[in-house]
Amino acid sequence: MRTRPLVLTTESARHPFRQRLPAHVLRLSEATPAKKPVDDDQDWKLFALSFCAFFTAFYSFIS
User: What pLDDT is stored for residue 62 in this prediction?
Assistant: First the structure.
């Protein structure tokens, strides 16, 4: 006789590891929406600061 695993497989989970997880674990991971990363323009601020610092230093050496 074949022994059956305690956890039934979930067909919607494509990866074999996710198929073996209990149903309540999958419901929690699917219920929470993916959070969009906050882009607060740190790159532009760093570029502007670096540009101003270089321009100030370069202009002070010329004059």
Answer: 85
